[in-house]
Every structure is written in structure tokens, then in C-alpha cells.
Design a protein that fits this description.
- There is one protein chain.
- The protein is mainly alpha-helical.
- The chain has helices at residues 3-10, 25-35, 40-51, 53-61, 73-85, 118-123, 126-141, 145-159, 170-195, 198-210, 219-231, 235-245, 253-265, 268-273, 289-307, 310-325, and strands spanning 64-66, 93-97, 104-107, 113-117.
- The protein has one domain.
- The protein is built from 16 helices and four strands.
- The protein has a four-stranded mixed beta sheet with strand order 1-2-4-3, sandwiched between helices.
- α2 (25-35) packs antiparallel against α9 (170-195), α2 (25-35) packs across α15 and α3 runs parallel beside α16 (310-325).
């Protein structure tokens, strides 16, 4: 029996798994804190009420090829396997865009879809690509795509000098970016569950950080580097670590790799593969009490940060809402 067929034989289908099973408590807590920002959801509805679903899909898909049995059949087969493993309720469209940067993204409003950069096909092997596809599917299943699409649009508006995204409104963008980075930690866990090989997931993170193939790189050294970054430095170093991330959409790959390793070593990953996970429609099981406590603790820290610029955030959000609605109240 081939190695690939053995992996397929051992792959566990996570039937009816709920996204809460893999969601990082910091992701859930930060999203809850972000939603407490004044009129935040009203701004979201206003922006997408103007733009609409179709223009957003065209903007992301105009320069991409839809994956199918007849186009990129190997990628299509891997993707179908990922959909089956995470028991996705439907097959969301997958596109490949000619972009050298190794990355992917999940976008959309009512009809989410994934765009995979062609550079990923050149650098990642099949198992690492499976991780990346599972990562993006995790964003969709966790309901991240609406906010992540908004984040990308606001960043593009800011880059183009759009007047609504000035210094005042930047507070809103910073709040979305803070949540967006935490959402990556959840999606990484989904990717790990999709590939079900921790080493492949960590190697994918190494390649996303620095490129190179397995003959040129050393995973152990990469993880040591991650520990050194997390644990080293004084107070000033900590401040600069925060500043380095403030306008970034993703956490550093070093930190993401360390978070994944911690989840595996902490037993969360193995519990799910044993079938001890939250099912869609089930009540929250007892072993999530600790996660809920961690989420509450993180939410307290996030709330104190948001309160530092609470009034500015509210005013910026109101201005954005009025600009997109002409000052008219929401129905």
C-alpha cells in the first residue's frame, strides 16, 4: 500500500464538528470585544450595503481561475479531501490567482470563497498545501469571512488615501486587525486538523516565514527561534513587538508555529482526533469551561485597550457610517 493511501486510510473524518472545537479563545474574545465598539456592526452593514456581494466577488475573482476537476485537478482533489475531513456543509468555490507570494485568503459575504495564490503551489508540498486549504476553510466555517473581507477593503481604502480612513478612523481598522491576527490562530488549528500531521503543518509555517525546501531548513531550529522570540527581551522589546504587529493582518509565523505546537502538546489536538469535540447543535461540553475562562480573561485585557480610544473609535465609526449612508439612519 502506498504512503498516500495509508494516510487516507488513517485520516479521521471529523463528522459534524463544530468550529468552536478549534477556535482559539483569544479569537472568540477579541471578536466579542470588537463587536462592542460603538456602531461597529452598523458601519459593516453600511459599507457592504453600498458595495454589495457581486462587486466584491468580482474584485477578488477577476484575475483568478476557478478550481475544478478539469482545472488544477490535483488541487481540486486535495480540496475535496479537506472539505470531507472537516465535514464542511457545502463545497465553497476555490480559485487560484497568479501571484508569486505564498498565501491564500477566504472572502465573501453570503457566498464565501477561497483564493489561493499560485506561489503556494510552487513552494508547498501536498501535505503543506492541505494545511493551507484547511486553514482557509477554517476561516469560512468559523464565520470569519465577513469581517476579514471588511478588513481587506479598509486596508485598500487606506492605501489609496480614501478620506474616510484617516487618523481618527484608523482606530476602527486597528481593532479589526487585532481580531484578524487572533483569527489566524483558530484557522491554523483547522488547517492542522485537515492535514492531521503536525510536522507538515509546522513545516508549512516555516516555509511561509522564510521559503526554502526541507533540505535547506531545520524545523527544530525554527521552533527554538520561536521560543526565543516569545520569551526574550525587556519591556522596550515588548513594546516594539506590539508596534511591529499593529498594521499587520497576520501574527508572525514564528508565533503561529509556537501556538500550534502548544495546542498539540497541551492535548487539544489529540482530543479532537479521538472524537472528543463539540458537535454542531450540541450544548457546550464541560471541558470547554477552561477555554471560556481564558476567553474572559483575554476579553478583559482587550477591553482595557479599546477603552483607551473608545470615544475616538465611536466618532470615527459614526463618520464612516454617515459617509456611506448620507447621514440617513439605519432602518
Amino acid at each position: 500500500m502506498s504512503g498516500e493511501s495509508e494516510r487516507e486510510r488513517d485520516r479521521r473524518i471529523l463528522t459534524e464538528i463544530s468550529p468552536i472545537s478549534w477556535e482559539h479563545p483569544a479569537d472568540r474574545a477579541t471578536l466579542a470585544a470588537m463587536r462592542r465598539v460603538p456602531v461597529f456592526d452598523e458601519v459593516l452593514r453600511a459599507i457592504f450595503g453600498v458595495l454589495g456581494e457581486k462587486p466584491i466577488r468580482l474584485a477578488f475573482q477577476a484575475n483568478a481561475v476557478r478550481v475544478s476537476k478539469g482545472q488544477f485537478p490535483k488541487v481540486h482533489s486535495l480540496y475535496r479531501s479537506v472539505l470531507e475531513t472537516l465535514d464542511a456543509p457545502e463545497e465553497y468555490e476555490l480559485f487560484i490567482s497568479q501571484t508569486p507570494m505564498v498565501n491564500a485568503g477566504a472572502y465573501g459575504l453570503d457566498r464565501p470563497f477561497i483564493v489561493l495564490n499560485s506561489g503556494s503551489l510552487s513552494l508547498l508540498d501536498e501535505r503543506e498545501l492541505t494545511f493551507l486549504l484547511g486553514h482557509e476553510l477554517g476561516h469560512i466555517l468559523s464565520g470569519h469571512v465577513l469581517y476579514r473581507t471588511m478588513m481587506v477593503i479598509l486596508i485598500r481604502l487606506a492605501q489609496q488615501g480614501f478620506p474616510l480612513v484617516g487618523l481618527g478612523a484608523r482606530a476602527v481598522l486597528l481593532a479589526i486587525l487585532e481580531w484578524g491576527r487572533k483569527s489566524e490562530l483558530s484557522a491554523d488549528r483547522a488547517g492542522l486538523l485537515a492535514v492531521q500531521e503536525p510536522e507538515a503543518a509546522l513545516h508549512a509555517m516555516l516555509k511561509l516565514a522564510g521559503g526554502g525546501d526541507r533540505e535547506e531548513t531545520n524545523l527544530n531550529e525554527f521552533l527554538i527561534q520561536a521560543d526565543e522570540y516569545r520569551e526574550g527581551g525587556d519591556v522596550a522589546d515588548s513594546v516594539f513587538k506590539v508596534l511591529n504587529l499593529m498594521l499587520s493582518t497576520h501574527p508572525f509565523h514564528l508565533l503561529r508555529a509556537a501556538e500550534m505546537r502548544d495546542w498539540v502538546e497541551g492535548g487539544g489536538y489529540d482530543r479532537i482526533l479521538r472524537g472528543e469535540y463539540h458537535h454542531r447543535g450540541d450544548e457546550e461540553p464541560p471541558y470547554y469551561d477552561d477555554l471560556a475562562a481564558a476567553a474572559r480573561a483575554y476579553a478583559e485585557g482587550t477591553r482595557s485597550i479599546l477603552e483607551q480610544f473608545g470615544e475616538q473609535v465611536g466618532e470615527a465609526a459614526r463618520k464612516m457610517r454617515d459617509a456611506f449612508t448620507g447621514g440617513a439612519p439605519f432602518p
